[in-house]
Amino acid sequence: MRPPDIHHHPADELLLSLAAGALPTGIRLVTEIHLELCAACRERVAMLRAVGGALIEEETAAPMRDDALAQAFARIDAIEAAAGAVGTAVPRKVPAPPPLPTGAVWPRALADCSATRWRWIGPGMRWSKVSVPGAPQANVFLLRIGPGKYLPPHTHRGTELTQVIYGRFHDGRALFGPGDFDLADGEVHHQPVVQEGSECICVAAVDGRLHFDGFIARWFGSLVGM
């Protein structure tokens, strides 16, 4: 399959936080999905990790405590004991993801996650809630919107990350297609409109809430955690 032509990428600050392991779970997952599709950003993150490793090696060694070695062995024993307990546990069965149209691929970053069936939220509009193991607070979901349909106008009380995996939408600022990434915050007021010819499927993570202009839209948004 030919790689998508990607025009919108995460900012360097976000990629640096990803490389440092400092992103909240939902934001990390959506950013990792972008990396699956974008060779340029994968190379960027690899470079940032290499630079970080070099900086760590240049740091002056800190003096060790007298009991540092004993503590290290104790932690190793605890990890081995936990690994043995996990080995006897019944493997977690992940439900099949909701069906996608031909040409759309379920992201590898969500392989251990479960997602609900597609649920109706309006004419030509469906959504699926993604559950992340060990991170119930992560607000991650999929949106599947038909051609010519649109979300209500909204801004954000927090941060919204969106990764397109199929189709295209225009939100008044730019056109976003397969592989494109968008980060919107309280300074962005937009209305994503799916382009004619194909439905659009996106993975989104919201840290905070979307603030829709109308009362009914806000009510629907509260039902799906947007």
Automatic annotation (TrEMBL):
Residues 108-203 form the ChrR-like cupin domain. This is Transcriptional regulator. Gene3D superfamilies: Anti-sigma factor, zinc-finger domain (1.10.10.1320), Jelly Rolls (2.60.120.10). NCBIfam families: anti_sig_ChrR. Pfam families: Cupin_7. It comes from Roseateles chitinivorans.
